Every structure is written in C-alpha cells, then in structure tokens.
Amino acid sequence: MGTKRQDIRTLSKRHPKLETLMNRVDKESLIRQHRLQKKDKAPGIDMVTKEVYQENLNENIDDLMHRLKSFSYKPQPVRRVEIDKGNGKKRPLGIPVYEDRLFQGAMADILSDVYEPRFLDCSYGFRPNRKAHDAIKVINAMTITTGTNTPLTLSAKRAIGAFELPASSTSRMILAKVISSPTFSASN
Length: 188
Fold this sequence. Notes:
Shape: globular
Strand content: 5-15%
Number of strands: 4
C-alpha cells in the first residue's frame, strides 16, 4: 500500500470527519485500477474494452483526470443483461463502462482506507482479507470456549429488505458522517 493510501488511514484514525477526498484520485490510482482490470470483462454501453483503452492509456487517463478535477465527469448508464441463475430463473447484471470501473475502483480503495481503521476487529462483512467463513470460525471458537450453544438464525432476505432505501440518499447519508463535502449535503 502506497504512502498516500496510508496517509488516508492515519487521518481517518485521528479525525472524526475528513475533508473532500476527490483530491486523492490521481493518475497513479487510475492506472493502478487499469492494471487490476481483467482483460476478458464484458464492455459497457460504449463497448470500450481494456485493450481498446490501453491503446491510448496516458491520453485517456489524462482526459478522465481533467473531467474528474473539473467536475464535468458524468458516469454513463449501465448496460443491463440477465444471466441464468441455474434454476430456470434469471438475475439482472449491470455492466458499467470501462472508465466508470476505473473511477469506481479508485474511490473504493479510498473509501476502504477511510473506513477500515474505524471498523471493530470483530467486523467481517465486505472487508479486505476477511470473509464470511472467518466470521463463522470466530463464532465456532466462541461457542466452544464459552459453552454457549444458542443457535442464531438470520434471514438475509429479511435483513436486506430492512435497508431498502434509495441507494443514493443512503450512501450520501453514510458518507456525510465521515466525509465533509458539499457532494454529500442534504440538498443533493
């Protein structure tokens, strides 16, 4: 992990609220995301693949950076497809355009660096190098050492349904608690 990313983690530990993080997206972070992209991924509505983007990588990244810094960047619509679930049903899948993937990846890294130091060690959901099986191992170990054997049942469908608010307002509300930016104000 680079020092810029470590700086974000340090700031997040020290301060309850951080200033705008857009300045943390730079050419280096976008090129890193480009390298991380799989070359066989389906293209978005613009049909740009990793190989096509690579042909003029520096110019493409410079253009994307200019649009991001001037706030003229606009995410493109997501291409919708349906994939078979294997049981005769289909599930919708959204495929973003290539540049949106790069920006989303860079922002995901930054947000991970902001929130990771704030999570409790007993938190396992959607965290780097942690998975559901790790949580199960901890619960099993606690059950054995404490002698507790009360089963806990959770309906994921019911739990997720409890949080069905418009994604943009929910995301903004969560981000606004930690990041001070006009982007997350109530009026947006």
